[in-house]
Amino acid sequence: MMLSVIIPTEGVERSAVATLAALVPGAAAGLVREVLLVDRSDSGVIERVADVTGCRFLPFEGTRGAAMAAGARQARGPWLMFLHAGAVLDSGWIEETSQFIQRVSDSGRPRAGIFRYARSPYADTRLWDGFKFIARLIAGPSAQQGLLIARDHYERLGGYAPDARRSEARLLRQLGRSSRTQLRSRIMVA
């Protein structure tokens, strides 16, 4: 059950560190094999964060979807987790992720996991947030909710298309409702 976590970053240390902090218990439990920070900026900040935290650093130019596809190609684990920088998983994610991976592996049925959306308690509430909530109910999960998927399933679906517009939404649509599971663990998004 080795998991590679891919986090596309924009050169902002604070958001990357917040996401990494939530992953530390998963690494200590032996679930997280590696974390790849795919940075689309040229500031050097994320390279230093990767060096200090023991993550792999991948400089990249291009869209977020292309950055995540590049990270997936470099990842070594049989399971991939895609998280946006700044997204923070709640403490129950380790046990649930382990159980999900085991269930999917035992069943032989390809499935992907999406974390339950939770708005950061520190974010300002706006009218737009209400519209986004309704959109999530109608259209399904957003890319901000993270994605947990077996590498072979990801590759069969074609992964994140580097040149496609809205590559993340495209992959979620390809998964469809029948092959994705909403996990109980929450992911807080600012």
Shape: globular
CATH architecture: Alpha-Beta Complex
Any idea of the CATH topology?
Answer: Spore Coat Polysaccharide Biosynthesis Protein SpsA, Chain A
CATH class: Alpha Beta
Write down the Rg: 16 Å
Q: Approximately how much beta-strand content do the residues carry?
A: 15-25%
| CATH evolutionary superfamily | Spore Coat Polysaccharide Biosynthesis Protein SpsA, Chain A
How are the strands ordered across the major sheet? 3-2-1-4-7-6-8-5
User: Which regions contain 5 or more consecutive residues with pLDDT less than 50?
Assistant: none
Number of helices: 7
Structural class: alpha/beta
Q: Average pLDDT, to the nearest integer?
A: 87
Number of domains: 1
- Biggest sheet statistics: 8 strands, mixed
Distance between the termini: 29 Å
What percentage of residues falls in helices of 4 or more residues? 40-55%
Order of helices and strands: EHEHEHEEHEHEHHE
Number of strands: 8
SSE layout and pairings?
Blueprint: E1 3-9, H1 13-28, E2 32-39, H2 45-53, E3 56-59, H3 64-74, E4 79-82, E5 88-89, H4 93-107, E6 112-119, H5 127-139, E7 147-150, H6 151-156, H7 167-175, E8 180-189
Helix pairs in contact: 1-2
Can you characterise this structure?
- With 190 residues, the protein is an alpha/beta fold.
- It has a single domain (3-189), classed as Spore Coat Polysaccharide Biosynthesis Protein SpsA, Chain A (Alpha-Beta Complex), CATH 3.90.550.
- The protein is 42% helix and 25% strand.
- The protein contains 7 helices and 8 strands.
- The protein has helices spanning 13-28, 45-53, 64-74, 93-107, 127-139, 151-156, 167-175, and strands at residues 3-9, 32-39, 56-59, 79-82, 88-89, 112-119, 147-150, 180-189.
- Strand 2 (32-39), helix 2 and strand 3 (56-59) form a beta-alpha-beta unit.
- Helix 1 packs parallel to helix 2 (45-53).
- The relative contact order is 0.20.
